[in-house]
Write a structure and sequence with these properties.
The chain has 310 residues and is of the alpha+beta class. Helix content is 68%, strand content 9%.
C-alpha cells in the first residue's frame, strides 16, 4: 500500500493544517524580530500575538479538532499586522504576504480563503495608494489580483464539471432520475442498514404496460416525453430521502427508507392517482402496474430487488 495508503484523510488534513500554521508561525516570528531590530516595538507586538495564536492552535490541533473560527483568528491577526506595519512604512513585510495567501487556502475552503484574501488584497492596494506609492502597488498587487480572479474562475469551472460528471454517473439521461447502477448501490446500502438495525425499508415498482407496444403506437419522441412527465409528477410526491429510479425502458422503482409495507402501499396508490390526474398531451393515459415489497430483515439486496424486477 505504501506510505500514503496508511494515512487516513483526517491525518492528511491535519498535516496540511499544521504545515500551514508552521509557515504562519515562522513568518510571524521573523517579522516580529525584524521590527524589533529596527526599533518598531509596538508594531512587532501584533506579530508576536499572531505567533502566539498560531502556536496555541498547533498544539490544540493535535486532537484533530479544527474550528473555522480559530482558523480565521489565526489568519486575520497577520493581515492586521501587515496593514498596520505598512501604515508605519515598514515595507519589508510585503515580502511574505504571498505565503499568507497560500496558507489561507491550506487552512480554509476555497470560498472562505477567497473572501479573506480578497479583502486583504483590496485593503493592501488602497493603503499603498494612500501612502503615495500607487505605481509600486499596481506593479506588485494588480497582477496578483488578476491571477486570483483567473484561478477562481477556473476553480468554479472545475467544480461545475465535477458536479456535472457526478450527476451523469448517477442519473438517467432522459428522466433525470437515478440510473440503474446508482440505484443498485443505494438498495445495497439500504439492505445493509435493514439487516443491521432492523429498520423497515420498502421498494415500489411502477411498470408501464407493454412498453414496446406503446413505443410503436406513440412514437419514441412522444413516449419519452410521457416518461419525463411521469418522473416529474412522481418526484414531486416523494420525500427528499426517497429515491426514484428508471430501472429500464418502462420500469420505475422507488426506494423508501424507514418505510413499512402499509405506508409504501399507500404511497404507491398516491403515485398512481397523481399520474392519472396529470393532464398529459392529448390526454394520453397508459396503464401502470404497481408492486410493493418490504425488506424482511434477513434477505440480501439482490433477492430483495428481484422481487420487483422479475
Amino acid at each position: 500500500m505504501g506510505l500514503l495508503g496508511t494515512l487516513s484523510k483526517s491525518n492528511l488534513r491535519k498535516a496540511r493544517f499544521e504545515t500551514a500554521l508552521l509557515a504562519l508561525l515562522f513568518i510571524s516570528i521573523y517579522q516580529s524580530l525584524g521590527l524589533i531590530y529596527h526599533g518598531v516595538i509596538y508594531q512587532s507586538l501584533l506579530f508576536i500575538l499572531s505567533a502566539a495564536c498560531q502556536l496555541r492552535y498547533i498544539f490544540w490541533s493535535s486532537s484533530s479538532v479544527f474550528r473555522v473560527q480559530n482558523v480565521f483568528f489565526c489568519l486575520i491577526i497577520p493581515w492586521i499586522a501587515l496593514l498596520i506595519s505598512l501604515w508605519g512604512s515598514q515595507y519589508p513585510v510585503l515580502d511574505w504576504f504571498y505565503i499568507l495567501f497560500i496558507c489561507a487556502y491550506l487552512l480554509l475552503t476555497t470560498k472562505e480563503a477567497n473572501i479573506v484574501n480578497g479583502i486583504g488584497l483590496v485593503m493592501l492596494l488602497v493603503l499603498l495608494c494612500i501612502l503615495g506609492d500607487f505605481s509600486r502597488a499596481a506593479a506588485q498587487l494588480l497582477p496578483f489580483m488578476i491571477l486570483l480572479v483567473i484561478t477562481n474562475l477556473l476553480g468554479h469551472q472545475y467544480q461545475y464539471l465535477t458536479t456535472a460528471l457526478k450527476h451523469l454517473q448517477t442519473s438517467d439521461l432522459l428522466t433525470n432520475c437515478a440510473n440503474r447502477e446508482y440505484f443498485q448501490q443505494e438498495v445495497n446500502r439500504a439492505s445493509g442498514i435493514s439487516l443491521r438495525y432492523k429498520i423497515n425499508m420498502s421498494l415500489i415498482a411502477l411498470q408501464l404496460d407493454d412498453s414496446a407496444l406503446q413505443v410503436t403506437r406513440m412514437g419514441h419522441e412522444k413516449y419519452d416525453q410521457y416518461l419525463v412527465a411521469l418522473a416529474q409528477v412522481w418526484t414531486s410526491r416523494l420525500r427528499n430521502t426517497d429515491l426514484l429510479c428508471r430501472y429500464n425502458e418502462g420500469l420505475f422503482l422507488v426506494l423508501l427508507p424507514s418505510t413499512g409495507l402499509d405506508s409504501a402501499r399507500s404511497l404507491a396508490t398516491d403515485l398512481l392517482k397523481a399520474s392519472d390526474a396529470y393532464d398529459f398531451n392529448d390526454g394520453e393515459k397508459l396503464v401502470i402496474h404497481t408492486k410493493t415489497v418490504v425488506h424482511d430483515g434477513n434477505e440480501g439486496w439482490e433477492d430483495w430487488l428481484s422481487k420487483v424486477t422479475l
